[in-house]
Amino acid sequence: MTKAAHLPTSVMLRYGIGQTGAQVFRDTPAALIPLFMTTMLGVPAWIAGLAVLLPKLWVIICDPLMGSLSDRWNARIGRAPFLLIGAILTSVSFTLLFWFSEFSSPMIGAAAVCLLFLLASTAFSAYSVPYLAIASELSPDPHERTKILAYRMIFTIVGVLIGVGLAQPVIFHFGGGAHGWRIMALGFGLICLLTMLVPALSLGKPSIGVAVEAPGIAAQLRMAWRAKPYVTITSVNFLLSVAQAVSYTVIGFVFIYAIGNVNMILPFVVTMSLGSMISQPIWLLLSRKYGKTPCFIGATVAWCLLTLTWLMVHPGGPVLVHLPLWGALSVQEAGVLLRGFIIGLTNAGFILLILSMMTDTIDQERRLTGQANEGVFSGIFSATEKLSFAIGPLIAGFVLSTAGFQSSTHGVIAQSQGAVTGILLLYSVIPAGIAMLAVIVFTRYPAILRRREEMV
Questions:
Q1: What is the pTM of this model?
Q2: How far apart are CA 324 and CA 317, in angstroms?
Q3: Lowest mean pLDDT segment, chosen from 41-50, 164-173, 402-411
Q4: Residue limits of the Major facilitator superfamily (MFS) profile domain (predicted)?
Q5: Banded model confidence at residue 346, pLDDT cuts 50, 70, 90
Q6: Overall number of domains in the chain
Q7: Distances in Å between the alpha carbon of 397 and those of 242, 327, 392, 403, 426?
Q8: Which long-range contacts (CB under 8 A, 24 or more apart) does 310-316 make?
Q9: CATH number of the domain bearing residue 303
Q10: Residue 158 within any structural domain of the chain
């Protein structure tokens, strides 16, 4: 393969910034819908999990269809119109998702949230699938694509900082009730709109887009199934995303009930974001020098080992040091911040590398078949990822209900020790076990990739 020219930094920045709003939409509902439903609407935890699952089941169909549709229109109008419409509708539907908190019964509330999330997920599909496909089209060089995704990862971190780190502090700052939820929803919806519009309005058509129409959806799905390296990477990403989704679902519960200090969420996410940003050039260097495969395995295994240590957290503890502008920092709180930094280092590594390897498999199939399948391949990848973020809350809801977690219609209430233990298991042992299963599946990838490459 001839070496591709370097993309201008401005292109990578304009592409990457769209991930800020996309990440806010991805993370905030994942982290807060179960909390919103159980503490504001009085919905039992297991029903809250089902309310998230049903829209995600629709996405399994919607994402590949949206990808196929964007493939078929790509040669004529590009993918920008999908991004434009998706950005606007995603932002509006996100705001509505947390706007209503008074219903005649918890079941009516659960049904309303389920319907709103279905509409929001459809709108997000119109944006996220073509957006991911563009990453495979911006450059034919695998290391250049890793660099593109590193820029995207920086804005992913910004989205996590906003969507996970600021959401609950904003809600509690404005009273913790319906007013707080509405302020958060309105502000975050505006952030989604402004950032997601940037690539929609500024990128145009990528330089290496295939200039022929893609085949129909059925033919594209058959091509995807025959692309075994792609299938393997998608399966690995699905398992990793389930592990992360389980953790995301209970992060608010962990800081409220297990750590006993919801104000630690923002410092935790800040240190995690700092670790992620620092690690980007490191992972780029390591993947070039040692290869993406060993770096991915190392990052994932390290994340699993660290995740297990959350079993040891508890409220309070002795003071470690007094800091300016902070006050007393306990040993437990220092441990939380240290975990956040290391999680940022490892999490950023395996997310960056799995996405980079996914674009490698798409590029391989494009060279092998000569077909424009970026959209449907990205759609399948995106659908499995979104499905995982439905399975995560479902697992969490089942475990929380089994552990005795009690729902409420008037905010946070005290929980039993069994419920707190269930929360910690969902933030440690369960996600670590699922992620290790992903590593086992991934060990097949290098050999499968080599066999497929021999056919090119």
A1: 0.72
A2: 20
A3: 402-411
A4: 1-446
A5: very high
A6: 1
A7: 14, 36, 9, 10, 10
A8: 310/254, 310/339, 310/424, 310/427, 310/428, 311/424, 311/425, 311/428, 311/429, 313/254, 313/258, 313/259, 313/424, 314/258, 314/259, 314/260, 315/258, 315/259, 315/260, 315/261, 316/260
A9: 1.20.1250.20
A10: yes
Radius of gyration of the chain from its Cα atoms, rounded to whole angstroms: 21
How far apart, in whole angstroms, are the C-alpha atoms of residue 281 and residue 287?
A: 10
How far apart CA 361 and CA 231 sit, in angstroms, is 9
Nearest-CA neighbor of 23 among 192, 237, 185, 266? 192
Q: What is the DSSP letter of 6?
A: P
Alpha-carbon distance of 273 to 357, in angstroms, equals 23
pLDDT surpassing 50 at residue 2? no
Question: What tens digit of pLDDT does each residue of 277-304 get?
Answer: 898 889 989 988 999 999 999 999 999 9
Q: How far apart are CA 92 and CA 70, in angstroms?
A: 22
Query: What range defines the domain where residue 446 resides?
Result: 9-453
Q: Is residue 3 part of a domain?
A: no
* N-terminal to C-terminal alpha carbon distance within the chain: 11
Cα dihedral 358, 10, 129, 156 sign: positive
pLDDT in tens, 352-407: 899 888 888 887 777 776 665 666 777 788 778 878 877 888 898 889 888 888 77
Round to whole Å and give the CA distance between 128 and 124: 6
**Is there a domain that residue 2 lies in?**
no
